[in-house]
Amino acid sequence: MTHSHPVRVYYEDTDMAGIVYYANYLKFIERGRSEWVRGLGVDQAQMKATGGGVFAVRRVVADYRAPAVYDDLLEVRTRYLSHSGARLILHQAVLRGAKLLFEAEVTLVCISDAGRPIPLPERLVAEIGKNPPQEAE
After folding, report:
1. CB-CB neighbours of 94 under 10 Å
2. Among the listed residues 34, 36, 13, the one whose alpha carbon sits nearest the alpha carbon of residue 102
3. Which residues are catalytic?
4. In whole angstroms, what separates CA 117 from the centre of its chain?
5. Are the C-beta atoms of 5 and 76 separated by less than 8 Å?
6. What angle do CA 126, 52, 117 make, to 5 degrees?
7. Do residues 92 and 78 touch, judged by C-beta distance below 8 A?
8. How sure is the predictor about 137, in pLDDT bands with cuts at 50, 70 and 90?
9. Going by C-beta distance under 8 Å and a sequence separation of 6 or more, which residues neighbour residue 82?
10. Which of 32, 31, 10 is nearest to 21 (CA)?
11. Which domains are present in the chain?
12. Which position among 7, 23, 26, 83 has the lowest Cβ density within 10 Å, counted as fewest Cβ atoms?
């Protein structure tokens, strides 16, 4: 189950060298994750409002492979790897065409308003259960 989300690089995304500032890749993959969850039918605002918790990033292992520059059209790919209880693990990649620029393994946890782990939303678990994890592309 791989989701794709387009991202355009704007001037504000770049550093003094004219390349994408490294922390902005984390913003790009956050957008990709949000759209992946939305595509599965999970409304994160409603989830929070009804006591279903929120997603928090627990861990990111990132690898920067090549730079992106102003006006590049990038693709953020989000791929489900596994889940258990309150934890969800995803692989995310940022590409320009076929060239891999950045990739990360992201561990999310679902937490309550008190900051305690709570089970992942049933809707999310049901949707990811329909699609087993995929091998790397």
Report:
1. 27
2. 13
3. 15
4. 19
5. yes
6. 90
7. yes
8. low
9. 88, 89, 133
10. 10
11. 2-129 (3.10.129.10)
12. 23
DSSP per residue over the chain, as a string? Answer: -EEEEEEEPPGGGB-TTSBB-TTHHHHHHHHHHHHHHHHTT--HHHHHHTT--EEEEEEEEEEE-S--BTT-EEEEEEEEEEEETTEEEEEEEEEETTEEEEEEEEEEEEE-TTS-B-PPPHHHHHHHHTS------
| Token pair 């949000």 in the structure block, residue | 34
Residues 18-72 have pLDDT tens digits of: 999 999 999 999 999 999 999 988 889 998 988 888 999 999 999 999 999 999 9
pTM of the entire predicted model: 0.91
What local confidence, expressed as pLDDT, does residue 122 receive?
86
Beta carbons within 8 Å of 96's beta carbon, 6+ residues apart: 68, 72, 73, 74, 75
